[in-house]
UniProtKB/TrEMBL annotation:
Molecular function via GO: DNA binding; DNA-binding transcription factor activity
Residues in HTH lysR-type domain copies: 1-58
Keyword DNA-binding (UniProt): yes
Gene Ontology cellular-component terms listed: cytosol
Gene3D superfamilies given in the database record: Periplasmic binding protein-like II, Winged helix-like DNA-binding domain superfamily/Winged helix DNA-binding domain
Keywords: DNA-binding, Transcription, Transcription regulation
Protein name, entry field: LysR family transcriptional regulator
CDD domains per UniProt: PBP2_LTTR_substrate
UniProt xrefs under Pfam families: HTH_1 (PF00126), LysR_substrate (PF03466)
Entry keyword annotation includes Membrane: no
Signal sequence annotation: none
Length: 317
């Protein structure tokens, strides 16, 4: 039994769809269906029932899902332990300067890191991307700058072209309640989003991503705030949808109450390190840890083909 099989199984349970889970894990629908069937054969039980609203976990499937979530969490902790090596990044404190957008994208990683690297909690300082770009070369060399840059931001990309090291490519996605009409779609379109109430994190970078994706059109923003709990309540009630991204959807533990749905012709961005941390510093070691974590815990995500995360065409359920 492979860890990847358990991860896919949990994604199918979350989305109630083989095709959605296959897209999230960057494998074919046929491959995903075969993995689920093999898991049922190995466990000698039926994990899903097919219903008009999608796949539904059986009683045995719910029990297996609980244990699979525990096993997947333990596996990721093991990968973090290996990536940390000695388990310490040195005596000096680790300072990470990042935009709120990036901090939210890497929240799962930071949580898991803090659990494993006891006593070395990163000092997180949030700045806007535009403030970071203006000042990163004047900050201390032992500070790690993490930013996200989209290809349409040509002026910023040109300015930092020699100092930006991309680590991972991502696509913007929709996050909605499992009961929202979007949850049953293989993908949504920018036109769908333009007509739907949005609950957005109040950050300029995200606003630019959404504005570019909508072709300069005015989004229907019901709620714009930095209060994530308030956004979560609006999404859970079905009043609005919000945004996530392909990396976050891959990394986060599946939540049966929500769904992450691809956007057709979505906007993309690169997440990476800006500047060069001092040699031997905690910042440099954490950058290496981040790269190792992505290469191990997110291996299938990192190995996808360019553009594979975008919803270029519908996939039949």
């Amino acid at each position: 039994m492979r860890v990847e099989s358990l991860s896919l199984f949990l994604s199918v349970a979350q989305h109630r769809s083989i095709s959605h889970a296959a897209r999230q894990h960057f494998i074919s629908q046929q491959g995903a269906s075969s993995i689920v069937k093999s898991l049922e054969t190995e466990l000698e039980t039926r994990l899903f029932d097919r219903t008009p609203s999608g796949l539904q976990l059986t009683a045995a499937g719910r029990a297996v899902a609980r244990e699979a979530a525990v096993a997947l969490s333990a596996y990721r902790r093991m990968q973090i332990a290996a990536a940390l090596g000695s388990g310490s990044l040195g005596d000096e404190p680790l300072t990470v300067i990042a935009s709120p957008f990036v901090v939210n994208r890497l929240d799962t990683l930071f949580q898991e890191y803090e659990t494993m690297a006891a006593g070395n909690r990163p000092r997180i300082i949030e700045r806007s991307l535009f403030d970071i770009v203006r000042s990163y070369d004047r900050d201390d060399a032992d500070v790690l700058h993490l930013v996200a840059i989209s290809p349409f931001m040509e002026r910023i990309a040109y300015r930092v072209r020699n100092d930006f090291t991309p680590l991972v490519e991502c696509e913007l996605m929709v996050a909605c309640s499992a009961d929202h009409p979007f949850a049953s779609k293989n993908f949504v379109t920018p036109a769908d989003l333009a007509a739907t109430p949005l609950a957005c994190y109040g950050e300029e970078f995200l606003a630019r991503l959404v504005g570019h994706m909508l072709g300069g059109g005015r989004p229907n923003v019901l709620l714009r705030t930095s209060n994530l709990a308030m956004i979560g309540r609006a999404v859970a009630s079905g009043e609005a949808v919000t945004f996530t991204d392909s990396l976050s959807a891959f990394m986060e533990q599946p939540d049966l109450r929500t769904a992450a749905v691809p956007i057709k012709e979505s906007v993309t961005f690169s997440l990476g390190v800006l500047g060069t941390p001092a040699s031997g510093s905690s910042a440099e070691m954490f950058a290496h840890f981040l790269e190792r974590y992505l290469a191990t815990s997110c291996a299938s995500y990192m190995e996808r083909r360019p553009g594979e995360g975008a919803a270029d065409e519908a996939v039949a359920l």
